[in-house]
Every structure is written in C-alpha cells, then in structure tokens.
Design brief:
Number of helices: 21
Shape: globular
Radius of gyration: 28 Å
Strand content: 15-25%
Helix content: 40-55%
Distance between the termini: 33 Å
Structural class: alpha/beta
Strand order of the largest sheet: 5-4-1-9-10-11-12-13-14
Largest sheet: 9 strands, mixed
Length: 626
C-alpha cells in the first residue's frame, strides 16, 4: 500500500457509522510494590503499596476504542454493565471516546461488569483478578438490546459483534436474533469475533485466529504454513457460510470469500511486543476500511499495518491512529517465506552447490552491487553481538544480575538476546536507544542513574574497539593476513565486480569514519564508488538512504543486487525491488552456515542464501538468470 492509497482510505473513514455489540469489559491496571516493610496490624500480613491506577475499555470496549482512534462519524455501543463502580467507570471511559452509550444497559441482578484487574509488579503483570465470570443475561436484557439494535440498524454502515467472555452476552438466543437481523439487512456489513464460532450464522463475516480454526476443523493449523492456512480458511468459510478473516500472529492474515483470496504478510516489528488486543485493532481497522468502500486487499493491508503498531505498545491494549498509520506505511518492512525460514519447507538448491534459492528472482546483468560491511565482507568486529549482549545484561540489571531471582535473570537475558538479534545491521545508536528503554522498563536502575543512548554507545564501543584495534594492528604488522578478517571469497568477488565495471557501494550501521578506516586497511576501500555509514549519534538509516538514491528516477532496481548478513540491508533491498543475497555465515567457523542468521535473512526477504562467497561463479550466474 502506498501513502496515497492509505490517505485516500483514511479520508473516507470519517463518514462511517459503526455499531459494536457484545462483551464490554473494563481493564484496570494497578502498579504496586510488595517490598514495603509494612504489615497489617489486624492480620500481620505484608502490606503492598498500590499506585497509578489506569482504566481502559476492554473486550468489545477495546474494539470501540480502536474505532474511535480512526475517527468514524459515529460509534454506538450495545451491551450490558452491572450496577457497580466498574460499570460506571466503563461507561465514563466510552463517553470520553465519543461513543454513544445510550444502549449500554444496566442489568441489576446476576450481572457484574466484566472487569480484568491487572496488578503490575515491576511492570510485569501478575495474577489477574476477574469480575463477571458468572454473569447470566436475562431474557429481558436480551430483548431490550435486540430492540435497541433493531431501532439503530438503519443508521449503521457496519456492525461488529464481539464475544470473548466465559459467561458471554452472546447466548444462542441472542445469536439467533443477530442472525435474523443480518438476513433482514443484507446491505449491512456485519463482522463477528467470537471465541465460540458455533454461534456464527451465514451472512456474517467471521474474524478468527488459527487456534479457533483448528478447534472448529478438529486438526492442527500451523500459522507459519501459508498453504495450510489458506486451505483451512477456505474450509472455515464454507462451513460458516460467509467470508472469513484469519489472523496468523507474526505471519500476517488471510481473507477468504466467495470470489476473493487475500494473503497479507506480517510487518516485521523490531523490539518487544505485546499482542494483547492486536486482534481487536485488526478487526476495527478492517471493518472501518471495508465500510468506507476499500476493497478486500486494501482493508486487509490497513488492518495488518494497524496491528503492527499496537503490538509495540506494552502493558496496554493500544490503538493505531491516522498519524501512526501514515508513518508505518512508509516504514513497514514485511516478513517473507516463514515456511522456509522455520524449516517447514526446504528451498531448492543450485545443483552441486550450497546456494539456496528462496525466490529465484534474477537481476539480469548486474550494474550496481550494494554490500553491507561487518559480517558480510569484514569480520574485524566478529563477536560484537556477544559484547553487546554482555553489556546489556549488566546495565539492565544495574550490575546485580547474579543477585536476581532465576526467573528474572532468564527474562532479562531473553529480552537482551532478542534485542541484539533483531537489531543486527541497524545503527549502533539506535540499538542503544532500545537498551535505554529496556533499562527504564525493568526498573532495576534508579531513574537518575539511567544513561543516555550516546553514553551507552560510548561504553559499548570502548570494549569493542579494544578488540578491533588489536586485530587491525595484527594486520598492519603482518602477523595476521587480511584473509583472517574477511568472509571467504568476499574480496575476490569485489575484485571481479570492479574489473567488470560494476559500481560498488558500501553501507553500514557502524560509524562512517570507522567503516572507511577498516575497509582501507583490508585493502578494498578504494573499490567502492561510495561508502555510507552512521554519522556519529545522528539518527538516519544509511542503508535505506542508499536504496532510495538508487531508486530515484527508476521504476525498478533492475541490475542491482544487495549483499548482507543483517536483516536491515536485505529488507531495504527487497522493499526497493533489488535482488537480495543473504550471507548466512558463521563468523567463527569459515564456510559454516549460521542457522540463526539464515532464518532472519529469509524472513527479511533474501532471494538467495549462501554461507560465504566461495561459489561465486554459480551464484552470479544464477542471479544473472543464466
């Protein structure tokens, strides 16, 4: 989707009139401290201190909240609350969002407002306290809601049904009344997200996930396997008698109808994620866009973009607004070939080689070759990731890692490892920005002692450059050859390209001065027409800028090939339309394939995967399309 296409859809959302019916709930977040040193006089038990109580609509209320973030003409809520403080707070929150709550009815008997109280200890959610698990709607409540819906339906463009509680509003009787409503109003778009899909009736579009589909079909559905998911989605559509949208977690979503099939890949998200509420975001965005006249493909893409925004909002059921979507449509890079990356399907190999053909895309005659530096050509910085990992553990734990409980140590280690792995290839300063967020969110370092990203970068580089400088000195004094610090075959390929008149461009997330010095020392810096690295602590993606400059004035990047061992350069190259070659080398064992790199590079969009450059003639022939 282009920015212009997105802008066109967003401009039409303001005329859509929405209805949401179902299980409205209240999410209550409470931060607390358990180490107070105080005890109750009456019970002798430790006293916990609570603070910063935050309330937000949940369940069907979160769907309404996501709709409100996109600014439709009207949102009408149809649901039940109890005669309690939580019900009053839920209605107040909805009113603040501009939702019409005149059909949020109070049931005085056998109904407590569905509420999720979520205590957060050191920003980590503890055991939840739920209200409303034994709710039972009365026949009078069902009839009153049905009458309100009947009176309002003529003024709606879309109706969203939400059912997710253990004791739901959506009884069989109410489901039948909604089905009758759908039959009598065939022009009304109705989309339902029901944990119990048996409640769905023909004429209603179903929003499901792979777990719900597997339960319905009575077999396993692997969300990484596109073919399996498409088949399962089609069977679900046939069984339910209507179109189906199936979300696949980090593998995107599929929409199936009588005359269409849309398979949208997921947006690659860097950093920590929280998927709670992402399905509501997806549902709300799809419903609004479709009601505004967007086709199935555009609506699905918009829903996918919106969900990729909310999963980055931690400890909350987030939303995505128009400004965030406008930024995301430009920045989004997608996850490719999850079946191959995860090992569910094997790629083709070029005969007699270790070269993996992921897509088989070719460039024709190569005119430009864009190379990442560290790990793709040079291994002077080999081990940078372990150094960053060790530093991350130390600063996030405030230097007290060994003193922490085992589960907390393991959680911090996983967070740091994930950050290092997923940010391979981006600017060092941006990696340190992620680290600052992590230090702050863990809360083990006093706020006044948390350093800036620039300070953490200097600390990290002091350790790394001690090793790099020693390696460079060994090259200068002749005690180690250049080959000891370059990827096998890389320098020979550069010489081959240079001799053939291919323009060579070097890019890196490392500071440019360092890239130039290291490339010059290893003897190939002069082969590049230009070198692009980070400019100190200035935020700016050199790899994206290189691809944008190459694309300027072109319809496509024919004849351009990108080589890299990091996700960033591969994702940027694939997004721009260049042929991409992932160098999945184990820097400690020359010639060995690194499976972790391979997985990341395939997901980032590599067309070809090699362990190094030793089979250059076969690789270049394949890229040419010979």
């Amino acid at each position: 989707m282009t920015s212009a296409q997105l802008s066109d859809i967003l401009s039409r959302l303001g005329s859509v009139r929405c209805g949401v019916v179902g299980d409205f709930a209240l999410d209550v977040y409470v931060d607390y401290s358990d180490d107070t040193g105080e005890h109750s006089v009456e019970t002798g038990k430790p006293i916990h201190h609570g603070q910063d109580i935050r309330c937000a609509p949940g369940g069907a209320g979160n769907v309404a909240k996501n709709l409100a973030a996109l600014g439709p003409a009207a949102i009408h809520a149809f649901g039940l609350v109890g005669d309690d403080i939580y019900g009053r707070e839920l209605v107040r929150c909805l009113d603040q969002l501009g939702v019409d709550t005149s059909a949020m009815l109070v049931q005085y008997l056998d109904w407590h407002t569905s509420t999720y109280v979520k205590p957060l200890l050191d920003r980590i959610e503890q055991n939840r306290l739920d209200f409303g698990a034994r709710n039972r709607p009365t026949s009078d409540s069902i009839e009153a809601l049905a009458n309100r819906l009947e009176a309002a339906v003529a003024s709606l463009d879309v109706l969203i049904i939400n059912q997710q509680m253990l004791a739901p509003l959506m009884t069989v009787d109410f489901a039948e009344q909604l089905a009758s409503l759908a039959v009598r109003n065939p022009a009304l778009l109705i989309i339902a997200d029901c944990r119990d899909v048996s409640l769905l009736r023909p004429g209603v579009m179903a929003k499901v996930n792979t777990t719900e589909v597997a339960r319905l079909l009575g077999r396993t559905v692997d969300e990484r396997d596109s073919e399996q998911c498409i088949t399962a989605c089609r069977e679900t559509s046939e069984r339910l008698g209507g179109p189906v949208m199936m979300t696949r977690g980090e593998n995107g979503l599929i929409v199936v109808g009588d005359d269409h099939l849309v398979n949208v890949p997921a947006v690659a998200v860097v950093g920590e994620t929280d998927t709670v509420g992402a399905g509501d975001t997806c549902l709300a965005a799809y419903a609004l866009a479709t009601a505004a006249g967007a086709d199935t493909g555009a609506s699905a893409e918009l829903a996918n973009l919106a969900a990729s925004i909310t999963v980055t909002k931690l400890n909350q059921t987030g939303t995505a607004n128009a400004d965030e979507l406008a930024a995301q449509v430009v920045d989004a890079r997608y996850i490719h070939a999850p079946e191959i990356a995860s090992g569910l399907r094997s790629p083709d190999l070029l005969a007699g080689t270790a070269i993996e053909c992921i897509t088989g895309r070719t460039s024709g005659a190569i005119s430009h070759a864009v190379f990442d530096h560290d790990g793709t050509i040079s291994t002077l910085r080999r081990g940078w990731n372990e150094m960053m990992y060790d530093m991350g553990l130390n600063v996030v734990s405030g230097g007290r890692l060994a003193e922490l409980p085992p589960d907390q140590r393991a959680r911090i280690a996983e967070r740091v490892r994930k950050m290092v792995d997923e940010t391979t290839g981006i600017q060092t300063i941006r990696q340190m920005m992620f680290l600052v967020d992590m230090v702050s969110s863990e809360g083990l370092v006093e706020p006044s002692a948390v350093r800036t990203a620039s300070e953490y970068k200097r600390q990290y580089l002091e350790h790394l450059m001690a090793t790099v400088n020693a390696r460079m000195a060994s090259v200068r004094d002749g005690s180690r050859p250049v080959a000891a610090f370059t990827v096998p075959g890389a320098v020979a390929l550069l010489e081959q390209f240079h001799g053939a008149g291919v323009e060579l461009i070097l890019t890196s997330g490392t500071d440019q001065d360092d890239v130039e010095k290291e490339a010059a020392l290893l003897g190939y810096g002069c082969r590049f027409s230009s070198i692009h690295g980070s400019q100190g602590d200035e935020i700016g993606d050199a790899k994206r800028l290189v691809m944008q400059r190459l694309l300027a004035g072109r319809q496509a990047l024919a004849g351009i090939v990108v080589f890299g061992d990091g996700s960033v350069e591969i994702a940027e190259g694939r997004h721009a339309g260049a042929v991409t070659v992932g160098i999945a080398n184990d820097e400690d064992i020359p010639g060995k394939l690194c499976n972790d790199k391979r997985r990341r590079l395939i997901r980032a969009g590599a067309d070809w995967i090699v362990p190094d450059f030793t089979e250059t003639s076969q690789l270049i022939g394949a890229i040419h399309g010979d």
